[in-house]
Amino acid sequence: MTDESARDRKDLQLDQDRIADGGEALTTQQGVRVHHTDDSLKAGGRGPTLMEDFHVREKITHFDHERIPERVVHARGAGAYGVFQPYDDWLAEFTTASFLTDPAETTPVFVRFSTVAGSRGSADTPRDVRGFAVKFYTRAGNYDLVGNNFPVFFIQDGAKFPDFVHAVKPEPRNEIPQAASAHDTLWDFVSLQPETLHAIMWLMSDRALPRSYRMMQGFGVHTFRLVDANGRGTFVKFHWTPALGTHSLVWDEAQKVSGADPDFNRRDLWDAIEAGDHAEWELGVQLVPEEDEFAFDFDLLDATKLIPEEQVPVRPVGKLVLNRNPDNFFAETEQIAFHTANVVPGIDFTNDPLLQARNFSYLDTQLIRLGGPNFAHLPVNRPVAEVHNDQRDGYGQHRVHTSGTSYNKNTISGNDPAPGAEGSYRHYTEKVEGAKIRERSESFKDFYSQATLFWNSMSEVEAEHIVAAFRFELGKVTDKDIRARVVDQLRWIDLGLAQRVAEGVGVPAPDQGADNHGRTSPALSQLTAPVRTVATRKIAVLAADGVDGAGLTSLVADLRRRGAVAEVVGLVDGAVRSSSGEDVEVDRALPTMASVLYDAVAVPGGADSVAALGRDGRAVHFVAEAYKHGKALAAFGTGAELLETARIDAEVAQGTEPVEDHGVVTTAADGGELPDAFLDAFADAIAAHRAWDRPTGGIAA
Ligand code: HDE
């Protein structure tokens, strides 16, 4: 964004810290100009290095200290800046937080997405929960909504968090497997801790394999509290709904993406923002009046439960747009410090024991990760609201306090800074009574009903994926007793599920289980109301010398006009020579790409091009694999011959009238303008995300 007036307050504040290094002299940290940085100072050209070489010693010392501890969970992430704006003021009846209620107010934000279990250098697409952490730089101070892409969590009390994380992280003896839950310790834990099962169902579902950070929902998970001007509280659940719809990879694809592009989700976010395709979500809330606290058949304080949307609708509040990539990964995405206790007036906590533990953990973790108590001075963490207090000193102190006092109350400095100003944070007044006791509330003890609700709400395809995921995960568990114990738990969710899983993992299938309550929540399925759009979808257009250039150009232009990202993929880089002798520029060389990096594949006509592609195993595999993963395919002219070479079992058009068969769209037309009906049918197939009902062998899930 070059337009000054369009730059938000946080962006302008960051100018104080940006260092451009344009045409400057190289200096030491002390500002002394350096004459030569390729060789150390030595006693003779072949002699020993001298201690007095302050430049090289400083350079190496700084390098030695470049790393900080990675996050103990959510180490792998990607972030971006953006802006939040409410649509209108309806929520003002419930909260004094004006950034949620004043449509004239835009709030700068930084959002960090992450995987949970993997190390900082792990791949983006393991089966895992995704973090969705939003820092709002509001005028009333920073508010952090540190959520996930699942609405429920694995445990109910923070006391179990270290146990859970130790179980899911790589095994302690050999640090294997990296970024994967398919190993003995996680499933041992699950089999002994049934509160995990609802979130485990989400983990085994397609939700754990988002196609893009831009195509996943976000949830605050806990029940929080909104507070109005009179101190009245209202329970609230926060939801983020992506404008592009919620879409997932299939498992076979996700595993291959890990190799083809370990930065798949990072790159997707970065590239989209660079291209001006700003990522968007709608913030919605489910509100529950305090008098209805006990109106549900679960406890609102239990983070393993969701409020079905059919019971309490999600009401739209405003829009989040991510529009600016960070300047420096370490300074911003790595050093950003979220904390669930960063709240502003109008938002408060509940007694959810998971949330209460988080309110301790996040500050504590930043102290070790960022090396002391002054991490709020780091540019990305600094509020745009003014900061004044009597906190002093500590490692990395950036402020030069000029006041003669650092205590309150004082007379020497006119009692500045003074508490109690208008707009101060006031904690919600809640009456609390109870015996001091270490126990789990009885109201938390139904571990299965909502896991069943989730299972019942899946479409057939989604349910199949869940069964396949359990079979994969438990199939990797070496201890058969653990497999059997997990299956034994699953029968309390649904007997059929337990039996299908058992069959795949070589343990006895149970013949008795819980009576399935039969309830569903359609909103839990990703496939019930998918948003259909081709916007930002990536399409590979395969071409070799002899391609029908006019047809190719017309297809690519049409896809780009619809907002998709169309790339010409050649056998080698450079250009392909069309059948009519023009050069068509190649965007990507086939050996550097894979079908798993695209949403759809098109094969233009041109006899020589199609024959050359047909002789290349990688090109044939590219098409066959895209088909296997349910992706839209299109071919025109002789292009359909490549589909046959790839043994794709679809009806193809014999004339110019397009034929669509399970997401495979063909026309015999070639050269010049392609029929609109063909282009529309291909766009529809891409927008449908996947053709789930392909006949031959189904989707490789
Ligand atoms: Fe976190 N979590 N968490 N968590 N969490 C961290 O904070 C923790 C939980 C979540 O992009 C850590 O700065 C405890 C639920 C996200 O920087 C740490 C408990 C949810 C991120 C921590 C939970 C989350 C974190 C690690 C149980 C979804 C990444 C580094 C009581 C609502 C934020 C850090 C980022 C990160 C502790 C449970 C989401 C150690 C003790 C539930 C998105 O403080």
Automatic annotation (TrEMBL):
Catalytic residue list: 74, 148
Polar residues composition-biased segments: 402-414
Keyword match Transport: no
Family: Belongs to the catalase family. HPII subfamily.
Cofactor(s) the protein requires to work: heme
Pfam family for this entry, one: Catalase_C
EC numbers on record: 1.11.1.6
Domain of life: Bacteria
S-adenosyl-L-methionine is among the record's keywords: no
UniProt protein name: Catalase
Binding residues annotated for heme, in chain numbering: 71, 112, 161, 358, 362, 369
Per UniProt, location of the 3'-histidyl-3-tyrosine (His-Tyr) cross-link in this chain: 339-362
Catalytic activity: 2 H2O2 = O2 + 2 H2O
GO BP field: hydrogen peroxide catabolic process; response to oxidative stress
